[in-house]
TrEMBL record:
This is 2,3-dihydroxyphenylpropionate/2,3-dihydroxicinnamic acid 1,2-dioxygenase. It comes from Advenella faeciporci. It catalyses: 3-(2,3-dihydroxyphenyl)propanoate + O2 = (2Z,4E)-2-hydroxy-6-oxonona-2,4-dienedioate + H(+); (2E)-3-(2,3-dihydroxyphenyl)prop-2-enoate + O2 = (2Z,4E,7E)-2-hydroxy-6-oxonona-2,4,7-trienedioate + H(+). Pathway: Aromatic compound metabolism; 3-phenylpropanoate degradation. The gene is mhpB. Transmembrane segments: none annotated. Homotetramer.
Length: 320
């Protein structure tokens, strides 16, 4: 079995409210390089850890973790819509292995995913169904949330399961570092918004457009400095990325939910996707990671980063 990892920020604002052309070109070049790497690796299985933003998972029944046995992307913002090619038997076996490791993961035969999954799949794989993909949802916007430590344990259990497969596996973590886009919260929502957070599946095109317009307008305000959204925090971002590069799991376990919100903003909990992906890689043995890109991009309300990592076993076997 060989295993590599690609982690990347996502943003629904790409193509709607972009940074200056030089920065956009920088990101596009980076995304093209990631795709090329993945094509060269030619994965036989992709496991994607990602959050949802009240498009597929709602408070009528909000799990902390969910493995998709069948999944469809809804196509919000400019992300691709359509079915993922999920290998059902492997997804089911993975669920059993994770449960056997005492992580009570949910299972879905009709998972809906949004740009959190779809953007990463498009960037890395060139589409939703070009490779077999198992989607793993991690709650990152809907309090109360499990701890970062639990995401590490989820990743570890999945990594140990993957180690038993004789396949080339690509692990993907999709999510922002510090960022606080205008995702509504149930705690202070009016009745109409609360209903949308509890059971807002498949909104009308008008409701969807209004929602997207609110996000774009919030990005304009954030970029102009006239916003109550929490600022980006490059120092915190770089520290977190360094923790992952070093594999400092004690530091990960010490990250409290309150400190993540305080330092990184309400959506910084998406770092869980990176934590789970790295923990899955670590389950296969020591790894070598590199931070390929980091830049705070206010136009996307995002501390924007990409990292790649390889199991040292792979590096050693290539060198031999
Ligand atoms: O309803 C909406 O669309 C609210 C805004 C929203 O979901 C924003 C999401 C932003 C990210 O996914 C991100 O920056 O990671
Ligand atoms: Fe997100």
């Amino acid at each position: 079995m060989t295993i590599i990892l690609e982690c990347l920020s996502h943003t629904p604002l790409q193509g709607y409210h972009d940074p200056v052309p030089e920065i956009l070109a920088e990101v596009e070049a980076l995304q093209a390089a990631m795709k090329k790497r993945v094509q060269a690796f030619d994965p036989e299985l992709v496991v994607v850890f990602a959050p949802d933003h009240y498009n597929g998972f709602f408070y009528d029944l909000m799990p902390q973790f969910c493995i998709g046995v069948e999944a469809t992307s809804i196509g919000d913002y400019k992300s691709l819509a359509g079915p993922l090619d999920v290998p059902r038997d492997i997804a089911l076996a993975m669920s059993e292995a994770v449960l056997a490791a005492d992580i009570d993961v949910a299972l879905s035969y009709r998972m809906q995913v949004d740009h959190g999954f779809a953007q990463a799949l498009e960037v890395l794989l060139g589409g939703l169904d070009n490779y077999p993909v198992i989607p793993v949802f991690i709650n990152s916007v809907a309090p109360p949330m499990a701890s970062c430590r639990r995401s590490r344990l989820l990743g570890d259990a999945i990594g140990r399961f993957l180690s038993g497969l004789n396949k080339r596996v690509l692990l993907v973590g999709s999510g922002g570092i510090s960022h606080e886009p205008p995702v509504p919260e149930i705690a202070n929502a009016c009745a109409e918004v609360a209903e949308r957070l509890i059971a807002g599946r498949n909104p009308t095109p008008q409701a969807r457009a209004a929602r997207q317009e609110r996000t774009i307008s919030a990005a304009r305000q954030f970029t102009s400095g006239d916003s109550s959204l929490r600022p980006l925090n490059p120092e915190w971002d770089r520290n977190f990325l360094d923790i992952l590069a070093r594999g400092d799991w004690m530091a990960i376990d010490d990250m409290s939910n309150d400190s993540i919100t305080e330092q990184g903003g309400k959506s910084a909990h998406e770092i869980r996707s990176w934590v789970a992906a790295f923990a899955a890689l670590n389950a296969h043995g020591p790894y070598k990671a590199s931070l390929d890109y980091y830049r705070p991009i206010p136009e996307w309300i995002a501390g924007f980063a990409t990292m790649q990592a390889q199991s040292l076993r792979l590096v050693e076997s290539v060198a031999a």
